[in-house]
Amino acid sequence: MADSTQNGPMQGGAGGGAVQFLMANKLDTAMWISRLFTVYCSALFVLPLLGLHEAASFYQRALLANALTSALRLHQRLPHFQLSRAFLAQALLEDSCHYLLYSLIFVNSYPVTMSIFPVLLFSLLHAATYTKKVLDARSLNSLPFLRNLLEKLNANQQNILKFIACNEIFLMPATVFMLFSGQGSLLQPFIYYRFLTLRYSSRRNPYCRTLFTELRIVVEHLIMKPSCPVFVRRLCLSSISFISRLAPTVA
């Protein structure tokens, strides 16, 4: 999940090595700063310490910062832009393009706490990875307390990615609920469905696809119990069949 950058300590003293590393990787450093800003804004939305009105503005700032990060990452992956169908198809295979679309879907919508968690956690994971590289460039033994926190975060990466995938899945019915409650637009569920199919087909991140499979197994196990009412079993089986038909084909 980490961006590819130069690694290892650099010469020039503790502080000088870190500065040289940051200057030598300007694009990665810009994404690091935007991710830290995303984490900051997301945290102030989830924990509205400055008031509910300010929390809504931090929600938009977090999504805009994430859109900027995703655009920079997409440029890094596909540096030569072309106005062609082939380039668009290639761009849609990139996770950064998925989350650029994700940010655009929710940036002007009614603030939904569920929608900010994927942005917050992805930014936190990527920022933590790059922070460790900055610390290595400064000194291999610098700031052990911070290094320990980063190691713990990295050790829980798989659980965090599963939690993100769970958010991505359950945001689909949330967008439908928002539509009927008057808090969403008519197009939002359809555009989000397209985002979800892209996440399901992701080459780099299989967690959305894995979570769909695990949820199906759990539901089928529960509804096959004798205590489950027949109409509930039929409803769940019909829903599973419908969702399976909507799933894209994965190569």
Write up this protein:
It is found in: Membrane. It is a multi-pass membrane protein. With 251 residues, the protein is an all-alpha fold. The chain has a domain of 141 residues. It is built from 11 helices and no strands.
Please tally the helical runs, counting DSSP H or I stretches of 4 or more residues. Answer: 11
Backbone CA Rg: 21 Å
Distance between the termini: 21 Å
Q: What does the overall shape look like?
A: globular
Features:
globular, transmembrane, single chain, TMEM33/Pom33, 251 residues, transmembrane helix, mainly alpha, membrane
Element layout with pairings:
Blueprint: H1 13-24, H2 26-46, H3 52-77, H4 85-91, H5 95-106, H6 113-138, H7 144-155, H8 157-180, H9 188-200, H10 207-223, H11 230-246
In a few lines, what is going on in this structure?
The protein is mainly α. Helix content is 75%, strand content 0%.
